[in-house]
Amino acid sequence: MRVFAVLLCVLAFVMGYVVLTSSLTGLSYAVARASSQREALQEETIRLDDQIAALRSDDRLAVLAARLGMRQPQRFAVVREEEPRAARAGSHFPLLSSLAGFLVPAVAAQP
């Protein structure tokens, strides 16, 4: 019985070691995979930054503007727009419109 108990304890320690080793191996693979993904994303980010810089270049925009017939303005002007006036509908029955305010839910009445 003592031998069986000692073997059981040794087996438990060996199994614990195997489980911890396999867990550590799995985590190292996960770290390697994450590192690889990080490098791929950094390369893609650099590539996309270069593409954005090329699309925003002044020379390219000047060529596109010339193709569309755009040119520099001869003079600048400030344009002010009047605010549109809201049409106010007069109520023929003021009593009915004030009673309608009680029927509107409180959530809809908030601005």
Please supply descriptive tags for the structure shown above.
mainly alpha; 111 residues; single chain
| Helix fraction by DSSP (H/I, runs of at least 4) | over 70%
Total number of helices: 4
Indicate the overall shape: elongated
Mean pLDDT value: 84
Derived from helix and strand composition plus strand pairing, the structural class reads: mainly alpha
SSE string, helix = H, strand = E?
HHHH
Radius of gyration: 38 Å
Which percent range describes the beta-strand content? under 5%
Main sheet specs = none
Number of strands: 0
Low-confidence stretches: none
Task: Set down the secondary structure blueprint.
Blueprint (H helix, E strand, L loop, with lengths): L1 H54 L2 H10 L26 H10 L2 H4 L2
Structure write-up:
With 111 residues, the chain is mainly alpha-helical. The protein is built from four helices and no strands. It is elongated and about 100 Å long. The mean pLDDT is 84.
Please sum up the structure shown.
With 111 residues, the chain is mainly alpha-helical.
